[in-house]
């Protein structure tokens, strides 16, 4: 009965590999997000999807490709991983159209690129 | 171009006393401000928010004050409890359409000592 879930929680991989992180929400929200928390602890938006449509793409390298098969899922695929991709990635969801509405976050996926 | 700043990386208070966490912003278009709390290895969870048309919002032990002219807000926790020990993020948003997103500060680590 977790509201926003992510898998895996931890991911350790070598440079150059391709990896995916999955996210699912059971809140019935129509908008989902990916945030990245880097070593400086900033939480920065990467992407948002509304009803499976890409809305926000915050100048993220095109090695990062989000995919939303349906409203409840937003996956993040990363090609050719680099050392600088090491971070914690958070998925979130909310209902669009309501100013100031909180977003619900998943537990995060800690990605370590060696 | 940090639009939301939390200049204190950490704060330590005694149990039962008041905790005051501060946040400054630069973008005058922000119309909602939110506080999130984050425990280690978990995602941020929503705590309290305030609209830019208000100067105070209270929810139990938590009160947020907004000073629009100074572009400053603060979160007051009274009385502080050891379970409040966490990282607190200030976030801000503009509007509520499908491109709604949160802009976060770096966070302040609050430690409440028994």
Can you describe this structure?
The complex is a heterodimer of chains A (114) and B (114). By secondary structure, chain A is an all-beta fold. Chain A contains no helices and eleven strands. Chain A has strands at 4-7, 10-13, 19-25, 31-37, 43-50, 53-57, 64-70, 73-78, 87-94, 104-105, 109-113. In chain A, the strands form two sheets. In chain A, strands 2, 4, 5, 6, 9, 10 and 11 form a seven-stranded mixed sheet that branches. In chain A, strands 1-3-8-7 form a four-stranded antiparallel sheet, with no helix packed on it. The model of chain A has no long low-confidence stretch (mean pLDDT 92). Chain B is globular, with a radius of gyration of 14 Å. In chain B, strands 2, 4, 5, 9, 10 and 11 form a six-stranded mixed sheet that branches. In chain B, strands 1-3-8-7-6 form a five-stranded antiparallel sheet, with no helix packed on it. Helix content of chain B is 0%, strand content 53%. Chain B is built from no helices and eleven strands. Chain B has strands at 4-5, 10-14, 19-25, 32-38, 45-51, 56-59, 62-67, 72-77, 86-93, 103-104, 108-113. The model of chain B has no long low-confidence stretch (mean pLDDT 94). With 114 residues, chain B is mainly beta.
Radius of gyration of chain B: 14 Å
| Structure summary, number of beta strands of chain A | 11
| SSE pattern of chain A | EEEEEEEEEEE
Shape of chain A: globular
Helix content of chain A: under 10%
Pair with the biggest interface: A-B, 30 and 27 residues
User: N-to-C terminal Cα separation of chain A, in Å?
Assistant: 34 Å
* Mean pLDDT across every amino acid position of chain B: 94
Number of alpha- plus pi-helical segments of chain B: 0
Beta-strand residue percentage of chain B:
over 45%
Q: What kind of sheet is the major sheet of chain B?
A: 6 strands, mixed
Structural class of chain A: mainly beta
Strand/helix succession of chain B: EEEEEEEEEEE
* Quaternary structure of the protein: heterodimer
């Amino acid at each position: 009965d977790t509201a926003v879930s992510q898998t895996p929680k931890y991911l350790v991989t070598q440079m150059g590999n391709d990896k995916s992180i999955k996210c699912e929400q059971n809140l019935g929200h129509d908008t989902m997000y990916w945030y990245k928390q880097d070593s400086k602890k900033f939480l920065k938006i990467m992407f948002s999807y509304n009803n499976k449509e890409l809305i926000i793409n915050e100048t993220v390298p095109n090695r990062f490709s989000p995919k939303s098969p349906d409203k409840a899922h937003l996956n993040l695929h990363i090609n050719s991983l680099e050392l600088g991709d090491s971070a914690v990635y958070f998925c979130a969801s909310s209902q669009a159209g309501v100013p100031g509405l909180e977003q619900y976050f998943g537990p995060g996926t800690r990605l370590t690129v060696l | 171009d940090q639009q939301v700043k939390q200049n204190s990386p950490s704060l330590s208070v005694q149990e039962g006393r008041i905790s005051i966490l501060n946040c400054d912003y630069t973008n005058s278009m922000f119309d909602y401000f939110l506080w999130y709390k984050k425990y280690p290895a978990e995602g941020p969870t929503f705590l309290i928010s305030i609209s830019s048309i208000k100067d105070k919002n209270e929810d139990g032990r938590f009160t947020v004050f907004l000073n629009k002219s100074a572009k400053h807000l603060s979160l007051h926790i009274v009385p502080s409890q050891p379970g409040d020990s966490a990282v607190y993020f200030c976030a801000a948003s503009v509007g509520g359409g499908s491109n709604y997103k949160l802009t976060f500060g770096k966070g302040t680590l609050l430690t409440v000592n028994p």
